[in-house]
Amino acid sequence: MENAAFMRISLQDLAVDLRENGMTEMFSQGEKTKPYERTRPSADLYNKLNVSYQKCVKQLTDLLPVNEKVKVQTDDFDDFVNDRKDV
Questions:
Q1: 19, 36, 77, 86: least buried by Cβ within 10 Å?
Q2: Domain contains 55
Q3: Cα→Cα distances 80→11, 68, 71, 72, 73, Å
Q4: pLDDT per residue as tens digits for the range 40-60
Q5: DSSP annotation of 45
C-alpha cells in the first residue's frame, strides 16, 4: 500500500509537470544537428509508472473480500441529474 501511495503522488507530480511543459520537447544531439521533437523523459516515466500503479491497484483490489460491497461516497449529483424533469 505504501508503494501504491508513493506511485500515486509521483504520478500526480508528473501530471502537473506534463500539463505545464507538454509531453514532447525539441531536442538536438549537438550544436550542428537539427533539433527534432521527442517524447520528454518525464512522459515516458509517467507512462511506465502508471502501468505499475494500475497493476498494484488491481492486486490490492483483488485482495478485497468478494462478498462485501465497497461503499462509494457520492455527492448526490447523479441523483440531481437523473431527477430533472426538463431533460
A1: 86
A2: yes
A3: 32, 27, 20, 17, 15
A4: 999 999 999 999 999 999 999
A5: H
Output the pTM of the full model. Answer: 0.66
Q: How many domains does the chain have?
A: 1
Instruction: Answer yes or no: is 11 within a domain.
Output: yes
Tell me how long the chain is.
87
Residue 10 structural domain = 2-65
For the range 15-21, what are the long-range contacts, defined as Cβ-Cβ under 8 Å and sequence gap of 24 or more?
15/46, 17/42, 18/42, 18/43, 18/46
Number of Cα atoms under 13 Å in the Cβ half of residue 33 = 8
| pLDDT at residue 80, rounded to an integer | 79
Q: Is 78 domain-assigned?
A: no
Q: In 3-state terms, the chain is what percent helix, strand and coil (to 5)?
A: 55, 10, 35
Q: Are 60 and 1 in contact (CB under 8 A)?
A: yes
